């Protein structure tokens, strides 16, 4: 059965101001934490995983990142999205020595590692059309939230 994954309205950001990826991820992780979606250690585990396995991806219009971590830090499946006011630097998922200016972060909190591929596929489907990311970036917060609710499904 397909169900909508938890997208909390306070975990969808537009025009987010962050000086670097750590600050952006901290703000996003705090939203998950305040909703009880993740437990202590989630934020640090995201940073640790990002060092070992970067999640920056070059998309048509802008760089994106899809950070996620070990399911043991997750209480409830959730996804957060931040459209950054100014891009922050992430390492490239494909070539870790390459830097990508990331404009959109899709933060995942998933209770089973098998769900990651499903959500990653959906995110890639969302952004594979040229101009689609541009449309998302231009949306006001409530419209972006509704768009994500309609386009991202759990297993």
UniProtKB/TrEMBL annotation:
Which Pfam families does this UniProt record tie to the protein? PTS_EIIA_2
The PTS EIIA type-2 domain extends over 5-151
Gene3D superfamilies according to UniProt: Mannitol-specific EII, Chain A
CDD domains the UniProt entry points to: PTS_IIA_fru
Ranges that cross the membrane? none
Q: Which UniProt keywords apply?
A: Sugar transport, Transport
Q: Which InterPro entries match?
A: PTrfase/Anion_transptr, PTS_EIIA_type-2_dom, PTS_SugarTrans_NitroReg
Top-level lineage group: Bacteria
- Protein name from the UniProt record: PTS sugar transporter subunit IIA
Source organism (scientific name):
Oceanobacillus locisalsi
